[in-house]
Every structure is written in C-alpha cells, then in structure tokens.
Design goal:
CATH architecture: Up-down Bundle
CATH superfamily: MFS general substrate transporter like domains
C-alpha cells in the first residue's frame, strides 16, 4: 500500500534533527539579511545626507547599546530558553526594518530603530552562539563551523543579487518588505525544535570584570580586533563602493561572486581545521587578511573592487574558520559557563565597535576618506593571532 506524506509531515521529518533545524533557520535568516546587508549602511548614509560621521554614530550606538545589554540577553536566555530567544528576536528586527521603512517620515524613528535593533541583537546572538557551542561535536568542530558558514553563505551568495535587482527595479520600501517576510519565515524551523535552557549565573558586575582579568587579556584583545575588523567590512566597505559610484546591481554581483568563489574554500578550511595545527592556520590567515585589506586601500574601479574583495573573502576564510573554531572550542570547554564566556565575548565585540565608530566618526568629520579605515582593518587582522596565543607571543607576553 503506498504511503502518502503530507507537506507538513515531510517538513517536520526534514527538520527533526536539531542541527538541521538550526542550520535551516540560519540559512533562511541570512537569505533575508543578505538582501539588505550591504545596502542598509548605504540607505542610512543617504538618509543622513551622505554624512559618514552620522552614519557611523547610528551603527556605533546600536553596538554600544547591545554591548551594555548583552548580560540581560544571557539572563533572558536562561528564563525562556535558547530557541525562544532567537524566535522573539525576529520581532525586534521586524520592527527595526519598519522604522527604516518610514524613516523619512519622522526623525523620531531613528532612536526607535536603534533601540529595536539593539534589543534584537541582545536576544539573538547570545542564544545563537550558545546553541552552536552546545551541539557542535568536539572532534568535528572545525567541520561544523565550516557547515555553519556554508549555511550562511549559500543563501547570501544569491541574496545580494536579489537585493540589488529589487533596488534597481523597485526601491527600498519593496526591499524592506521582502526582507521582513523572509525573516519571519526563518522562525518556522525553531517552532519544530525542543526548547533548551541554560543557566546564566553572572551578575552584571562580574560579566564586565571578566574583560579586565589579566589571564584573559589576549583573548579580550583578539575578540576586540575581530569585532572591529568585521565592522569595517560590514559597514564601511559598502559605503566605499557607493562613493566609487558603483550601481546597486553591480554591488550585488560583486558581493555574490566573491562569496561564491570563497564558499568552496570555506568547506576545505573547515575540514583541515580539524586535522592541522589551528594556531598556524590562524596566523597565516590573519596575515593574508591584513594584506588583502592593504590591497583594498588602492582599488578605484568596479573590476578591481571585485578582485580585491574576492581575495579578501578567501583570505578572511583562512583566518575566520580557525578563529571561530577556537572560540567555540573555548566556549565548549567552559562547560556550564559556556554562556558566560559567550556573553563576555559579545560585550567586548560590541563595545570595541562603539569606540571604533566614535573615533572614525570624528576622523571622517575632518578627513572623509573611507579607505583610511582599511589600514586600521589591516592592523586589526593581525590581532586575530592573540586568540590562540601563538608560541612566538608566549615568551614576550607571559600570559598563559
């Protein structure tokens, strides 16, 4: 007798494994965010009258507020569970994009947008990292990190093309509406998974005191450097392409093709990270990423932008995969305190971005040259090496 499965049954079967549910939700989420990721800073840049300083203050305030609230993200996560944290975060991001949609109607929506996005990040990122650290296997964590990056990259490869096409044919309101619809769809896999609760014990004072512990100095610096380098790539690189007068559709293709070329390399890096010395891989990748940023400083044409960004994506993968693997390994080794370690990281990442953007906002007020930040990114990239405290640093720093 033939057996007929309903679509709902098949979907439940497909998503019944926890890792599959996690990766599916993340893939759909990044399909949504990938459509707007490089265009969001440009939208705010145009809204603020092409002021680099005001644009960076907007995003810097978001990260600063999240850094302050991160501890409460851990406490909420302990009360309602990881899945509910990630699920509820979508509504705050939804509200954020509604604010952006109507931003030209009233300046009052600017602080509302900042608060909503900061709250969404506070709910999502601590739960995301804690969940991944909990279910990823120790012996294959590098491969799991590679899979997570592919789950992110696979939809992001096509989403910038979609976003650029929507902006070219329609406008920002249509793009924001599409992003919100897909973002809500990313919550579906989370409904099909069991809830997991973590016990978060740090007080606000204790969480912040971890940053200044002598034994954590290298780790804190590595997280800060990583956070600031990522911020320059996410926010300032799209603005640089705008200043070069590159069209939206061309930006989408540049971003998508560079990601496509790096995707295969990411899987390879995930595999060898489990078998090769991670510290050595991290050192090599950090140096190559630094070189890629210096090359970016000199680009002036769309084709050179494409070549330099493709090189950057490949080099950044060589540093990012071992960096993320070491981070999740450190978190997993903390056992019951994994979530405390993750919150400590989130505070550092975002407070460092706040101060970076504050500094750059002042710099660009007098010298509005975006590519000056690329030199800083090249320096920050070398700081990734501190996470594993490589041998050449041990005798000098004597931290561990």
């Amino acid at each position: 007798m033939p057996i007929h499965y309903s679509p709902v049954y098949f979907l439940h079967y497909l998503l019944k494994r926890e890792a599959t549910q996690f990766f599916t939700s993340i893939a759909i989420r990044y399909l949504a965010l990938g459509m707007i990721l490089i265009f969001e800073p440009i939208y705010l840049y145009l809204y603020f009258g092409k002021s680099l300083s005001f644009t960076l203050l907007f995003f810097g305030t978001i990260h600063g507020l999240y850094g302050i609230l991160a501890v409460y993200g851990g406490k909420i996560m302990a009360k309602i569970g990881l899945k509910h944290n990630m699920l509820f975060s979508n509504f705050f991001f939804f509200g954020y994009y509604i604010c952006l949609l109507f931003l030209y109607q009233s300046f009052v929506l600017v602080p509302f947008a900042i608060i909503l996005k900061a709250f969404g990040m506070t709910l999502f990122w601590p739960a995301f990292h804690t969940d991944f650290a909990r279910f990823s296997e120790k012996d294959h964590r590098g491969m799991e990190v590679g899979k997570m990056n592919i789950a992110i990259l696979a939809p992001v490869i096509i989403s910038p093309i979609i976003g650029g096409w929507v902006l070219t044919v329609f406008n920002y309101p249509v793009l924001f509406t599409l992003v919100m619809l897909v973002l809500l769809a990313s919550a579906i896999p989370l409904f099909l998974s069991k809830e997991i609760h973590e016990i978060y014990t740090d007080s606000y004072e204790k969480a912040w005191s971890r940053i200044f512990k002598k034994e954590d100095r290298n780790t804190s610096l590595a997280f800060a450097f990583n956070g600031m380098e990522v911020a320059i790539n996410f926010y300032l690189w799209p603005l640089f392409m705008t200043i070069l007068a590159i069209q939206y559709s061309v930006m989408g293709w540049i971003t998508s093709l560079s990601l496509m070329f790096s995707a295969i390399f990411i899987l390879y890096m995930g595999k060898i990270t489990d078998t090769v010395n991670r510290s050595r891989l991290l050192n090599i990748g950090s140096f190559l990423t630094s070189v890629a940023w210096i090359i970016k400083f000199f680009v002036v044409t769309p084709f050179s932008v494409f070549l330099s960004h493709t090189l950057y994506r490949i080099c950044r993968s060589a540093a990012g995969i071992p960096f993320q693997t070491i981070f999740y390994e450190k978190a997993a080794l903390k056992g019951a305190e994994a979530d405390e370690f993750i919150i400590y990281r989130e505070i550092i990442l975002n407070i460092s971005r706040f101060f970076l953007f504050l500094f750059l906002a002042g710099l660009f007020f007098f010298i509005p040259k975006v590519n000056l930040a690329f030199i800083l990114a090249a320096i920050f990239s070398l700081g990734f090496m501190l996470l594993e405290n490589p041998p050449k640093f041990r005798s000098r720093l004597k931290i561990r």
